[in-house]
């Protein structure tokens, strides 16, 4: 998932994943820049054990934690904003050596806008800190191959790094590991499967990995969803039309209404997941005459 911003430069996006104690949400949305810099040094040392030559590449870290869905959005905006901050760092235009670049809250505790997480998504026990490995395209490709093969099995943070993060964020961390975005996608797919969200994954995966392509869920009893032009339309049915499509063996109006209410709750659940991933949702009220359009 490396992306090039210039002919000779590429980026490998990754995250530090923090699995927090379920009863201990972090009181700090971001750590100060000095703490972020120390955490970045530990990150660099941990990754260097897996990736020879990593010290020749730039490593950039945001000292702020986000929901997984904020890291998995079309166009990867979290990492794109981090790269924009990196590009504006002092000395970038003239430097020759690799750099460790960390961003965090300022001396007054204010968090720059690009590092502010969505407060609506702040309650999950799994939080991620985005980082970027940047450098010459061939070197990034080689690093990417190693990390894609190694991080899932060997990507646990060292004890010293985990303790530093725990102290910096003033929260209890149960587990701390490093993931590429591919790893994070695979882990999220498994988690969504355990939550009964398997049918939604083809739409999410298409929106993230194949922007511009279409996808569809048309498999009753699931709602009808269509991804087109980067947004998802969810079909709303009148009661009778819904009954013909989803409850063909039920002619009891009261029972039919209860079943449809559960169906509508499922629609809202899927819409909330899509919107958390930054995918716009619209609702189309269609009848049997227009379903095939």
Itemize the secondary structure elements and their pairings:
Layout: E1 3-6, E2 9-20, H1 33-48, E3 58-62, E4 66-67, H2 68-71, H3 77-87, E5 100-103, E6 126-136, H4 137-154, H5 159-169, E7 173-180, H6 181-194, H7 201-209, E8 215-217, E9 225-228, E10 231-236, H8 239-246, H9 253-276, E11 281-285
Parallel strand pairs: 3-5, 10-11
Antiparallel strand pairs: 1-2, 2-6, 2-7, 3-6, 4-6, 8-9, 9-10
Helix pairs in contact: 1-5
Query: Runs with pLDDT <50, length 5+?
Result: 289-293
Tertiary shape: elongated
Output the radius of gyration. Answer: 22 Å
Beginning-to-end CA distance, first to last residue: 36 Å
Mean pLDDT: 88
Largest sheet: 7 strands, mixed
What is the helix/strand order? EEHEEHHEEHHEHHEEEHHE
How many beta-strand runs? 11
Give me the number of helical elements. Answer: 9
Number of domains: 2
Measured as a percent range, the helix fraction is: 25-40%
Beta-strand residue fraction: 15-25%
Q: Could you say which structural class the secondary elements and strand pairing correspond to?
A: alpha+beta
Q: Would you kindly provide a written description of the structure presented here, covering whatever features stand out?
A:
By secondary structure, this protein is an alpha+beta fold. The chain folds into two domains: 3-194; 198-285, no CATH class. It has nine helices and eleven strands. The chain has helices at residues 33-48, 68-71, 77-87, 137-154, 159-169, 181-194, 201-209, 239-246, 253-276; strands at residues 3-6, 9-20, 58-62, 66-67, 100-103, 126-136, 173-180, 215-217, 225-228, 231-236, 281-285. The strands form two sheets. Strands 1, 2, 3, 4, 5, 6 and 7 form a seven-stranded mixed β-sheet that branches. Strands 8-9-10-11 form a four-stranded mixed β-sheet, covered by helices on one side. Helix 1 (33-48) packs antiparallel against helix 5. The longest helix is centred in the last third of the chain and has 24 residues, at 253-276. It is elongated, with a radius of gyration of 22 Å.
């Amino acid at each position: 998932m490396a992306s090039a911003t210039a002919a000779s430069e590429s980026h490998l996006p990754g995250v530090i994943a923090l699995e927090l104690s379920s009863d201990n949400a972090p009181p700090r949305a971001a750590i100060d820049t000095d703490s972020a810099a120390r955490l970045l040094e530990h990150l660099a040392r941990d990754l260097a054990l897996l990736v020879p030559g990593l010290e020749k590449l730039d490593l950039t870290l945001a000292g702020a934690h986000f929901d997984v869905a904020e890291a998995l959005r079309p166009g990867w905006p979290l990492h794109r904003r981090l790269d924009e901050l990196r590009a504006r760092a002092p000395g970038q235009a003239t430097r020759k050596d690799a750099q460790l670049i960390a961003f965090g809250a300022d001396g007054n505790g204010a968090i720059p806008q690009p590092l502010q997480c969505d407060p609506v998504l702040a309650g999950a026990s799994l939080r991620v800190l985005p980082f970027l490995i940047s450098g010459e395209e061939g070197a990034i490709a080689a690093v990417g191959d190693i990390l894609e093969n190694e991080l899932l099995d060997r990507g646990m943070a060292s004890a010293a790094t985990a303790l530093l993060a725990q102290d910096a964020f003033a929260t209890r961390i149960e587990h701390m590991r490093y993931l590429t975005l591919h790893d994070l996608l695979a882990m999220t797919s498994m988690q969504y499967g355990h939550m009964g969200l398997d049918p939604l994954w083809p739409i999410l995966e298409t929106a993230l990995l194949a922007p511009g392509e279409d996808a569809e869920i048309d498999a009753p009893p699931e709602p009808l969803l269509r991804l087109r032009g980067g947004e998802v339309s969810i079909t709303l049915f009148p009661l009778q039309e819904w009954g013909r499509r989803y409850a063909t063996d039920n002619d009891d109006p009261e029972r039919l209404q209860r079943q449809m209410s559960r169906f509508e709750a499922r629609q809202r659940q899927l819409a909330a997941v899509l919107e958390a991933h930054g995918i716009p949702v619209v609702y189309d009220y269609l009848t049997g005459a227009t379903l095939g359009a």
